[in-house]
Amino acid sequence: MRPSLTNRGWSLCGAAAALLVGARVLGVEELAMLAAACFMVVVVAFIKGRRHALRLSAERVLRPTRAEAGEAARADLTLMNLGRRSTPVLAAVDSFDTGRRVARFLVPPLAPGETADAAYRLPTTRRGIYTVGPLRLSVHDAFGVIETGITLAGEDKFVVYPKVEDVLPLPGAASREARMGAMQASRVPVGLDFFGLREYEVGDDLRRVHWRSTARTGELMLRQDEMPWEARSTILLDTRPSTHHGDSLERAVEIAASLATAMCRGRRQVRFMTTGGVDIRSSGGDRYPQIMEYLAGASVETYVRWDQVMEGLRRTAEGPLAAIVADVERTDFVALGALRARLGLIFVCAIRPSAYGEVDVNPVPTAPGALVVPVSSASPFKSAWNQAMVTCQRGAPVRS
Q1: Distance (Å, rounded) from C-alpha 305 to C-alpha 53?
Q2: Edge-to-edge strand ranges of the sheet holding 115-121
Q3: Rounded to an integer, what distance in angstroms lies between the CA atom of residue 120 and that of residue 107?
Q4: How much is the pTM?
Q5: How far is CA 325 from the centre of its chain?
Q6: Rounded CA gap, 236 and 295, in Å?
Q7: pLDDT tens for residues 286-321?
Q8: Counting beta carbons within 10 angstroms of the beta carbon of residue 196, is it exposed (0 to 12), middle (13 to 18) or buried (19 or more)?
Q9: Are 65 and 159 in contact (CB under 8 A)?
């Protein structure tokens, strides 16, 4: 921890040097005395700065460490004076997103062993994976030419998830039904064999209550069945650079996050894939943070050929499929619809230009064998998707 010159200090040294040159050229003794006084101020400030032996500890707690876009989040800081002397007034700067934004505040003098608390809000307006910290504490001399600082608290990761809308999950469908070409969803996705009991959580289906255990324990207990591997659903996010313009990727990421959240909240098995090669398999909520963290930092990716992606889905995909696409070719829609024979239920969320502030020119695309859910300014994702799920649950045939 060494004192260093501030911008004002460097300016003062430069001015002193200029005064010395002027005194030599013009032969004015007063200018030399003024230059000496400037240098003396800097020297005295350095001597006093070395006396500020700061011994402090700092702790930062993010509440929460992961937040949804638009949610409130904050950082709590706790400082403690570990030295034998009271500290001077300290200037604290905590950086966010590698210094693109900072939180500044003053710390009052702390007696030995005394602590001080501070808090500030974390920006959550846009999804992303951010770095908070490190915290820098500094003290300046009376003239502001010398700064003595110390870096504490290290760095913490702060993840802002994409905005999530409350939508219905994909309907359940077994692979056997899919291979037979069935287009009607199971009304209640349940397992085949009894797996265990768990406590009731808000939103759970009351039809699954195990009344004997409830009467014995006094708490609502739900029957939990073992889910067969065939019940896994697949979410495909198109991240090809050629298909996204403007904010279409942001809208696609929000849709993918909403679908993944709906599936994981219902403890459904889900497989999340992208055209860039990402493949995450989740059983209920076990891999949910991994999916959401990927979506927090998602960007366009170098992709595999579309026909290779389709071939991979044809060979290894499970359950119904929800594909999220933007500006894709008609042949891509046809390829998705052709997966019906393998997966049975195919939903295509087609993001229209008006959904991200542009103008719709072409008609709504069709995909024979799949249900296209157009997302536009006139048909927001939440209402369009929920309507499609309700129609499917009622057993209506799926038409392109």
Answers
A1: 61
A2: 56-63, 74-81, 115-121
A3: 14
A4: 0.74
A5: 21
A6: 12
A7: 788 999 999 999 999 877 788 888 888 888 877 799
A8: exposed
A9: yes
